Amino acid sequence: MISAGGGKTEIAQQMKRANRRAGLRALALVAPLMALLTLVFLLPIGILFLRAVDNGNAAELLPRTAAILAEWDGISAPEEPFFAALAGDLQQAPKEKVAELAKQLNYTIPGMRSKFIATARHARSATAPFAAGMIETDPAWATPRYLTALQRAIPAVTDFYLLAALDLQRNESGAIGAVPEAEALNLEVLSRTFTVSLSVTLMCLLLGYPLAALMSRAKGFKASLLLILVLLPFWTSLLVRTSAWVVLLQSRGVVNTLLAWMGLIDPNAPLELIYNRIGVVIAMTHILLPFMILPIYSVMKSIPPVYTRAAASLGARPFATFWRVYLPMTMPGVSAGALLVFILALGYYITPALVGGPKDQMISYFIAYYANQVTNWGMAAALSAILVAAVLLLYVIYNRLVGIQKLRVG
């Protein structure tokens, strides 16, 4: 005879086994999708991020030189053993690998690429002693400067690109400090990216909130028409929409022509609405506006109108009803739309490139520049990592704010 306590224990165990089997079946169903997602999305991104700290294969290319530099004090001038080791390594190294190393060294010391290639060309035909010939090829080999650059290229992992992405560098002693003001660019680009994204988000919120409220209260054909007008940008290519704004905003475009016809501006002095920050914000606001409207509209549509009528019946004025009843209930849609628009704006590339000026390009432009034009994958990966880190930080802050809001409501 089974006791009541034993029966409960057996039932609990059976429920655990059933839940475990259900969990395994669910995992088996999503496993192919997770494998595909890992293979085509997560793995390439992970490989890209590794390039931000990858220092190449200098240690394998210059093994004897690496052994000499491991014992170097970082101060004294190079002597014949160093030049002999470097010449021996360069004589055996493939030319394409030497060119890659020279390009890497050029990031540390501008102009070293051509000099290092010239040194490698001389070393292939040189005989001992090597010091005099290499110094004659480039007198800088008589100083510790090039040795410092080579020593930093030896480790397989480096923080050079991540520091450079934040306008930082290591000095000759290894301490981290700011780059010269004339070379500082990336922090300004990051600040510009966040400023433009925040401006676009605020503009989308100011325009999207009233329109979402109008859509949520519309009925029949009017509601369908408004929804189609909001969704219309999704049915048009991003490049086409951006090019249309070039036509509208240029000096002799539709907007300036209309303003001149209305007598609001001088026809000979049109407004500068393109190739500047104004054009970027206008075009990006138009493109991203649906991403703000739709989350707010979905929340507004689910709010029963009885709440606002109840507040009015209790004596609340229209503004108080909106501020204390309606607005707090729409905040989940507002926060979701703002987060979505802001994150999308952070990575915009085509629109600022077409309607913005040189001082309006955002971080995505420079990622594309380093990846496609100068083939500096380390800097492209470092800037990408910073952008992804900023997005993840925003997501964490959003989750925290949503959690606090739920606690207040509860």
Automatic annotation (TrEMBL):
Membrane-spanning residues: 26-50, 194-214, 221-238, 277-300, 338-357, 377-398
Keywords for this protein: Cell membrane, Membrane, Transmembrane, Transmembrane helix, Transport
UniProt superkingdom: Bacteria
InterPro entries: MetI-like, MetI-like_sf
Cellular localisation: Cell membrane
Domain ABC transmembrane type-1: 190-398
Stored SUPFAM superfamilies: MetI-like (SSF161098)
Topology of this chain in the membrane: Multi-pass membrane protein
UniProt keyword Transport present: yes
Family of this protein: Belongs to the binding-protein-dependent transport system permease family. CysTW subfamily.
PANTHER family: ABC TRANSPORTER PERMEASE PROTEIN, INNER MEMBRANE ABC TRANSPORTER PERMEASE PROTEIN YDCU-RELATED-RELATED
Record protein name field: ABC transporter permease
Annotated organism of origin: Pseudogemmobacter faecipullorum
